[in-house]
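TL;DR need structure tokens for one chain.
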Amino acid sequence: MKGDTFRYTPQRMEDSGITPNLVRLTGPQDACNHLYFHNRSFTPDDKTVIFQSTRGGGNNLFAMELASGQVRQLTQGYQLDYFAYPSRDGKKVFFGAEGCIKTVDLETLEEEIIVRAQDLVEAKVRKCSGAFPSWDGKKLVCFYEANPDYAAVFSWYSRPERRRRMYKPHPDFKPHKPVTFEQLQAIMDAPVLDTSLLPEPVIIESFTLYRRENAWFLKVRGTKGEEGIAPCSDRASYLHLLLKKFLPLAIGKDARTLEEILNTIYVTDINYKIQGLAYWCCIAWLESAILDMLGKAAGVHIAQLLGGRQRDELEMYVASGNRDTTPEEEVEILHNRVDKIGAKAIKFKLGGRMSRNRDSIAGRTEGLLHLARKSFGDDFIIHCDGNGSFDARKGIEIGRIAESINAYFYEEPCPFDDLWDTKAVADALDVPLAFGEQETSLRRFAWIIENDAAQVLQPDLQYTGGFIQCIKVARMAQAAGKVVTPHVSGGYASYNMLLFCAIIPNAGHYHEYKGFRGVEDCVPGGLPVKNGLIRVPNGPGLGLDIPFINTPQTECVFEIR
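>> reply
TL;DR here they are.
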């Protein structure tokens, strides 16, 4: 495997006395070969030799330190073309594979595509038969074997300029605006809730948690009969005991002091020590119920309490969570979903989900990226989502393919808790990187934004703690010129995304649609999607009418007074 090290045992040999100082460096167990006959195999310091070998299967590049005999595998999984050679500074090896000229760093093993044949040669390219640098190392002359003839082309070796010519980010995305942590901290500290439309106190009297089959709801009542009801996710089935711990801390408080209530819960009994997805989901349910009550008490949509309404409809992309489909099957599924709602954009899954570079089906990721572009055409919007499948090296490699098909954005290539690998991928690519669906900390969001580790922020309306927390993320993102496309999973829990995107000015252009599965019945007029567009409900509070709360089919799980 790439990065593995081992040793051959050198053997001194004699050639009938003609050349007495022969040393056999590799053993007979593997087929080894020098680089193409007119390419040098030694690094400039003569300490390392580069060669090809079939060791471990396939044909890969290896580097041997002559002094120690240690060998390190440099590449994995390619059908190498005719040539490879060390760079003039001895830090990288140029090689041909998959019709591209690439480099691999001898220390980090990070790979970089220098030239793509499909961008330079109109004929169908079979392989690159040679590439040779100028004396200053800034230019390459490349020979491509193409049908029907050979083609010779020149390429300046200037990675940032070249990649920008190859990939052009959509105009929806703007360059990063430098922002300091102090500026972001000021946004985190600033209040969000506007209670000017509520001159009288709204005192919280009780909370009731309900369940109807797999749907969960939290109702709050005020001392004057005010009510609010918010959908919870099905995570309430195992988080409701934690929710029950927090609710008493809000009883008897003025709901208009919601932000103070949330801070009190955070610091009481050092609850901050259990913060994470479980904690913030409970806070999001509590907050949404109170916001619904406040909105209804004031007779306004919650947007009026949270900064004002920015838009009345959203454009949706259809998403698929499949990883067990072939590229052909997945493209057919996506076409059917696009046709159903008239969407202008799609998103599909890459890799094997937190799989350490393993694909769910061998070759599926690369095949799906190329087939989706071919099938949907050049102008269709394509998002792709790694769900933490890759490390930085592999994430960059897949990101290059995403760039080659002009993907709209590239989501969560690396594990969600690895901010360093995520930033490494973002720094290496020009395709906008989307990230943050599992993030629960405002300070970590601030780090991501300050360090430009993602260009699209994706807070989840539950995992991140509700409207107020997510609005602060959006405001920090806006300060750095970034857009916000919140994460959603479908069902009742996804409904708040519609309201949130109506509030923030820097909402992304397209938003995820997986169906609302029951919410439509609780919204006057339903939630139809036509020509890829969905209207944002505008009723008081959350805009929901949940008539079955008080029916026998709905179970009261607990009540807190």
